[in-house]
């Protein structure tokens, strides 16, 4: 995975929307939203069972966006799928908006759990997967976590529980962009060997290029990866993907202000982005 997958027309359009939100709201976790964009796209286009007009449908698949700070990408996808009007994207992080700096289940249609306090999503997901088994329901539970988030002990406690109970209806997706808020994961808290760690917790493991639509579809279309075991998909991604000056830069982890000049530069960079080498 030494070469990035090129951004297609939809990938560019979704990134334009994220940049538009940043320009309007003047704040947000820019880098984290861009590393998960293709993961969310594939989940909502091809994998998840859901119905925006029936939010309480009991057999819908549950998706928990545990790294809640990257929620700009989630908002873009939920709006595209009809959970709320796209005009709401102009009001992100404004007073009275249903779309805050972190997703809230009681405010935003389509959000299964309020997240942002890192390490909570997987424990919630394990509980949902256990409930599905106990109630003889067919829904699956997908939980997207970050690599920096994986420093939290609650992630591994939940993984122990999932492995013990053989929750084959649980799929963990790791956004492995190799960056945290102020440095690389290898500097802050090295996770390697990450795949072997998950295997030791009785998870079936696959790894993909997290920006490659075909690889994501192929992997996620075949869950569980192994009968009787929970699955984990490690997605190798780039924080800030699509904007050269933001890629792999902790400076773009979060912005509380963005200038007109920065927005214009980022627009130009997006149109010039190709599948460059890592």
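Q: What amino acid sequence fits the structure above?
A:
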């Amino acid at each position: 995975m030494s070469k990035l997958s090129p951004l297609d027309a939809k990938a560019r359009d979704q990134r334009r929307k994220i940049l538009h939100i940043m320009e309007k709201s003047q704040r947000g976790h820019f880098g984290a939203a861009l590393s998960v964009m293709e993961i969310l796209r594939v989940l909502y286009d091809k994998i998840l069972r859901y119905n925006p007009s029936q939010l309480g449908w009991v057999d819908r698949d549950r998706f928990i966006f545990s790294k809640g700070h990257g929620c700009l990408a989630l908002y873009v996808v939920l709006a595209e799928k009809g959970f709320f009007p796209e005009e709401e994207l102009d009001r992100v992080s404004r007073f009275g908006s249903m779309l805050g700096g972190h997703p809230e289940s009681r405010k935003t249609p389509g959000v299964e759990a309020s997240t942002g306090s890192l390490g909570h999503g997987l424990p919630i997901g394990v509980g949902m997967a256990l409930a599905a088994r106990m109630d003889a329901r067919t829904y699956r539970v997908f939980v997207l976590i970050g690599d920096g988030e994986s420093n939290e002990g609650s992630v591994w406690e939940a993984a122990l529980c999932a492995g013990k109970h053989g929750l084959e209806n649980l799929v963990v997706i790791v956004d492995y962009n190799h960056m945290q808020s102020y440095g690389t994961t290898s500097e802050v808290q090295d996770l390697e060997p990450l795949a072997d760690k998950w295997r030791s917790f009785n998870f079936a493991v696959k790894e993909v290029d997290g920006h490659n639509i075909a690889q994501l579809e192929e992997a996620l279309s075949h869950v569980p990866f192994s009968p009787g075991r929970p699955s984990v998909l490690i997605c190798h991604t780039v924080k800030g993907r699509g904007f050269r000056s933001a890629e792999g830069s902790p400076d773009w982890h979060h912005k509380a202000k963005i200038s007109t000049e920065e927005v214009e530069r980022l627009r130009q960079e997006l149109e010039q982005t190709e599948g460059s080498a890592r």
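Q: And what stands out in the fold?
A: The mean pLDDT is 94.
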